[in-house]
């Protein structure tokens, strides 16, 4: 994975959320925000995960993708960083 991609994981995630949750402003996408509060239902949840995999060139482990454990934007950022092999602090 390129250094540029490592530095832009946060932007990639926010961009993917904005693509899937049309009309949501970037400022509303905070780490403590629940995905459901952004209009991400079960179908959009799957779309979002696939889009992040594409943008970040990663593949999530299916065992990490439970809706109960992946509820907030921060949860999604942490999972993406772990999957990409990037410490959370570099997001």
UniProtKB/TrEMBL annotation:
Task: Show where the Carrier domain sits.
Answer: 8-84
InterPro entries in alphabetical order:
ACP-like_sf, PP-bd_ACP
Which segments of the protein form a coiled coil according to its record? none
Q: Tell me which species this is from.
A: Paenibacillus hexagrammi
The identity of this protein, by name, is Acyl carrier protein
């Amino acid at each position: 994975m390129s250094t540029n991609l490592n530095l832009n994981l946060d932007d990639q995630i926010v961009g993917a959320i904005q693509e899937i949750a049309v009309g949501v402003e970037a400022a509303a996408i905070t780490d403590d925000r629940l995905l459901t509060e952004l209009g991400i239902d079960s179908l959009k949840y799957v779309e979002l995960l696939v889009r992040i995999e594409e943008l970040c060139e990663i593949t999530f482990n299916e065992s990490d993708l439970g809706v109960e454990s992946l509820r907030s934007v921060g949860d999604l950022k942490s999972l993406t960083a772990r999957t990409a092999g990037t410490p959370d602090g570099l997001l």
